[in-house]
C-alpha cells in the first residue's frame, strides 16, 4: 500500500547544518590529534550544528504530523467548512483538514518552491491526495498569498504552516496576512504557525479587526519551535 510523502522541510538548511557540523567535528578530531587547543570550539560548534540538523530532520519525518494534528484540533469541526491552506506544499494540512470534512471542501494554494520543501511540486501534492483518499474534497491552485483571487469571506477556516516567513519583503508579507483576514468569513478562524514573525502576523490580524490568541510551541515535536496564532473574525452584528 502506498504511503503519502510529505517531504523534508528546508532541505538545504538541514544539509548545510549536517555538512558543516560534520566538517567541524572532523577538524576538531584532527586538531586534538596534533595537540592544538582550538579543538574544543570546533567540537562543540560541530556537535551543536549536527544536533540542530537532526532535530529539524526529526520534525520533518515525525514531528510535523503531530504539529498538524495540534493545529487542526484548535478548531471545532462541523464537517461542512470551506477551508483554505496557504502554502500547502505537499498537502499536509490540506489533507488533515479534508479528513475532518463531510460536505465541506479544502483549497490549497502554493507556488511550489523547491527550496522550501524537498520534492515540492504540484504533482507530488496531487499524488498525496490520491493516496490519502481525499482528492475529491480538495482543489489545488497555483497562487501567491499576497493577492488571492477569492472573493471576500470565502472560507470558514484558513490554515498555514511555515509559509509566510518565506515572503521576505515585510510589505508583501503583511499583504498576505491581510489577504488571509479578507477571505475569512465572519465567524471564521485563521490558524497560522511559524518559527518567526508570528507577533507580526498577530499584529496585522488585530489591525484587521480579528480577535487573536497565541499558543506556545511544543518543544517535544517542533524544531525550530513553532508558535501558533489563532485569529477569529467576529460575526457582523
What keywords describe this structure?
alpha/beta, 237 residues, seven-stranded mixed sheet, Rossmann fold
Helix content: 40-55%
Counted up, domains total 2
SS class: alpha/beta
**pLDDT < 50 runs, ≥5 residues:** none
Please tell me what the overall shape is: elongated
- What is the total tally of β strands? 7
Instruction: Give, in spatial order, the strands making up the sheet with the most strands.
Output: 3-2-1-4-5-7-6
- What is the H/E string? HHEHEHEEHEHEE
User: What is the H level of CATH, i.e. the homologous superfamily of the largest domain?
Assistant: Vaccinia Virus protein VP39
CATH C-level class of the largest domain: Alpha Beta
Look at the structure and give the mean pLDDT.
Answer: 94
Termini distance?
51 Å
Beta-strand portion reads: 15-25%
- How many helices does DSSP assign? 6
What is the name of the CATH architecture of the largest domain?
A: 3-Layer(aba) Sandwich
CATH topology of the largest domain: Rossmann fold
Backbone CA Rg: 20 Å
Characterize the main sheet.
7 strands, mixed
